[in-house]
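[Discussion] Sanity-checking designs against the backbone

I'm trying to build intuition for which residues belong where. Below is a structure token string of 736 positions. I'd appreciate it if someone posts a full sequence so I can compare it with mine line by line.
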């Protein structure tokens, strides 16, 4: 765990950013020694007189004894200084910068020795202001602000952790981005607005020759032109450093301006209003949901419904997003591993992003996700930092239960909270066994979240699981890493085994006795960072399998789907129902079996669900119910009481919705009986359950009339892009 107490930090450039870092470090880090170098001697004298800086000097004098070197200079100057540094800094020093453009610096870095590159962590605090200079520096400049780190995969995890810790101590939130993407995004969100502000003021200055138009300008002009008060030297440097990307976005912008000019000329009021409305909604959303981000204004602010008309044909060859279960685990294990982990195919859904954000909050630097790619700089089993806020897990039971397994054995206190649905879900199933291992956890009355976890010393034990739940099993296996001795678990019916498989991929031994079903893990080991390829999620693919199966005509191919035998219950069930399924191109990717699945329109027969298939298809029952509604005969599902404690009570949600659509359904405490029939169409509520919403969207394929589904905002938790993918294969779906 990096510790900056008593370390020495050199700050090269004592302007707004460098000065603010210095002020904050001096106050927040006991025993720290600060060296500074700047061309402006007045800045240095002032900082020394204030007791902020301990020693000043030239570049060499400042950096030679420093543990951390911060280049707080404009980008071109950073690029100029970099080649000098390898001969000046000590061999353990970690170097970082704060420039707004990264590519130009990376190019300079590429000319330096590999060892130096591996200790240089490119960074950018997006916390500046139009003010500049040391006199404007403030120790609170970085509080709750975002810092973007853009290290390459070759940078040492230990160096990244040190820079992460430095910013964390200053109260910042640390995000990671791919370097090229950083420069493109910043060109659009920061560099372009600065250019517009400068150019607007320039235009007005020219207009104003000898006049006094500024006397009549007010808030609008002041707001828009604020950025034109920024430091001209620095901004000239930024535009030159990021010329190509700024030019690209500027061309797009010029085009847009000409478009607006034409609309104004043509007095096209409706088009102007429509464009302004789109911009207003996006800007309001940004301010409300991102800039002033807080969990209270999450999903329930967004009321999304699906309006789905019947469709005739379902066809296509598609790939659904990455597996949710594997994505959560990739983040967890990558974070507590030693070294760097690269994930491809990561599910960029709201649930998995909660797990990602939780580990970022605990001091892990994570780059991405960027098109499914995530790079994690692991901090090691004991390298997590105490979260500064309650970790908010949104709608995700998996995130809460698995992360609780990590937190139970830490040396710090923490809290886990969730949205309305998660706050009603049972947690005793993990809290009771964890407490048997020695954990100290408090729940809300009723055994629900939030969880207050007092990190404790855990002792490995044997635990016989009461519910067949991969979340419980995984939570305990993860806690087992932190426990002394051996932790073992027996499950009555096998549940998904991604945790066991992935621990092995991270070189952490887990054994399973096939006869007794006992799974064991020894505490105290280390995980080794690795590369993980995540297959498409069979639980998401299932919606389209059923859509094709119940369609009047059609065939759909789902590519690269994970077919781990502990997840293929839905394939077995559809097979039993007589669905025409073909599995091809079987292979293994990253320790998980994968294949292409083709499903054709079929005459479906009712079945009685074999009990042993229930845990293997646990997430697929909402859409299975839709298949049952289209089957000939009565389908019986029992032994599935777990469905009552998912994101909604799925037995009730599905029964109520199916009845609204004209299907006869009986419910039991542990299941339901569905009589196949005609789906009439009508209005249903998903009860904010993502899988219920998507299942009813699929029911429209066989409906006689429109199906309107309420409360669909949570579909984004597991299946971002569902609506457009569904539309691409023939669902007549609209988001309203
Ligand atoms: C999951 C396990 C299942 C499943 C959930 C994901 C996991 O829950 O419903 O969507 O990733 O371990 P249970 O194990 O509690 O049944």
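Best answer:
Here's mine. Compare freely.
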């Amino acid at each position: 765990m990096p510790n900056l107490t008593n370390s020495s930090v050199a700050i090269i450039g004592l302007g707004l950013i460098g000065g603010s870092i210095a002020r904050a470090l001096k106050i927040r880090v006991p025993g720290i020694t600060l060296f500074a170098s700047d061309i402006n001697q007045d800045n240095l004298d002032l900082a020394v007189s204030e007791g902020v800086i301990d020693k000043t000097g030239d570049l060499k004098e400042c950096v030679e004894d420093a543990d951390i070197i911060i280049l707080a200079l404009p980008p071109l100057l950073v690029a100029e200084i970099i080649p000098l540094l390898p001969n000046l800094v000590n061999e353990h020093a970690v170097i970082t910068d704060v420039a707004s453009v990264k590519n130009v610096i990376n190019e300079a870095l590429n000319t330096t020795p590999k060892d130096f590159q591996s200790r240089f962590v490119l960074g950018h605090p997006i916390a500046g202001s139009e003010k500049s200079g040391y006199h404007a520096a403030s120790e609170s400049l970085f509080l709750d602000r975002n810092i973007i780190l853009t290290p390459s995969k070759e940078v040492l995890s230990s160096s990244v952790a040190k820079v992460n810790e430095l910013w964390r101590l200053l109260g910042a939130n640390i995000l990671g981005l791919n370097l090229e993407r950083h420069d493109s995004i910043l060109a659009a969100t920061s560099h372009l607005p600065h250019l517009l502000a400068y150019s607007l003021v320039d235009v007005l200055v020219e207009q104003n020759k000898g006049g006094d138009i500024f006397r009549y300008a007010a808030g609008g002009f002041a707001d828009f032109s604020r950025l034109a008060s920024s430091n001209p030297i620095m901004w000239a440097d930024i535009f030159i450093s990021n010329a190509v990307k700024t030019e690209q976005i500027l061309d797009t912008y010029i085009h847009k301006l000409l478009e607006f000019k034409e609309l104004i000329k043509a007095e096209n009021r409706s088009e102007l209003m429509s464009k302004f409305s789109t911009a207003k909604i996006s800007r309001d959303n940004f301010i409300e949901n991102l800039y002033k981000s807080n969990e209270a204004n999450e999903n329930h602010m967004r009321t999304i419904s699906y309006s789905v008309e019947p469709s005739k044909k379902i066809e296509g060859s598609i790939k659904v997003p990455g597996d949710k279960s594997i994505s959560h685990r990739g983040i967890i294990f990558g974070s507590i591993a030693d070294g760097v982990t690269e994930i491809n195919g990561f599910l960029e859904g709201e649930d998995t992003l909660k797990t990602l954000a939780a580990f970022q909050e605990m001091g892990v630097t994570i780059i991405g996700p960027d098109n499914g790619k995530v790079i994690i700089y692991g901090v090691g089993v004991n390298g997590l930092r105490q979260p500064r806020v309650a970790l908010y897990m949104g709608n995700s039971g998996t995130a809460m239960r698995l992360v609780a397994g990590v937190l139970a054995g830490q040396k710090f206190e923490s809290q886990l909270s969730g949205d309305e649905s998660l706050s009603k879900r049972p947690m005793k199933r993990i809290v009771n066994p964890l407490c048997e291992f020695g954990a100290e956890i408090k729940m809300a009355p009723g055994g629900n979240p939030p969880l207050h976890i007092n990190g404790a010393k855990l002792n490995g034990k044997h635990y016989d699981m009461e519910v067949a739940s991969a979340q419980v099993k995984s939570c305990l296996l993860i806690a087992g890493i932190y426990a002394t001795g051996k932790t073992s678990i027996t499950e009555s019916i096998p549940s998904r085994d991604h945790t066991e498989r992935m621990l092995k991929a991270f070189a952490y031994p887990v054994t399973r006795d096939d006869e007794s079903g006992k799974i064991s893990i020894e505490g105290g080991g280390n995980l080794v960072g690795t590369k993980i390829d995540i297959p498409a999620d069979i639980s998401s693919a299932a919606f389209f399998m059923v859509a094709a199966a119940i369609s009047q005509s059609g065939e759909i191919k789902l590519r690269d789907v994970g077919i781990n035998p502990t997840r293929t219950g839905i394939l077995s069930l559809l097979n039993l129902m007589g669905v025409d399924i073909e599995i091809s191109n079987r292979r293994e990717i990253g320790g998980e079996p994968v294949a292409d699945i083709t499903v054709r329109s079929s005459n479906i027969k009712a079945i009685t669900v074999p009990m042993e298939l229930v845990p293997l298809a646990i997430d697929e029952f909402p859409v299975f119910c839709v298949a049952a509604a289209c089957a000939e005969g009565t389908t019986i599902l029992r032994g599935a009481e777990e469905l009552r404690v998912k994101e909604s009570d799925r037995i009730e949600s599905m029964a109520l919705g199916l009845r609204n659509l004209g299907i006869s359904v009986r419910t039991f405490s542990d299941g339901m009986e569905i009589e196949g029939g005609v789906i009439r169409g009508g209005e249903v509520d998903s009860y904010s359950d993502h899988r219920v919403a998507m299942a009813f969207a699929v029911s429209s394929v066989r409906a006689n009339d429109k199906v309107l589904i309420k409360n669909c905002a949570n579909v984004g938790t597991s299946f971002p892009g569902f609506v457009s993918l569904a539309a691409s294969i023939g669902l007549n779906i609209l988001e309203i």
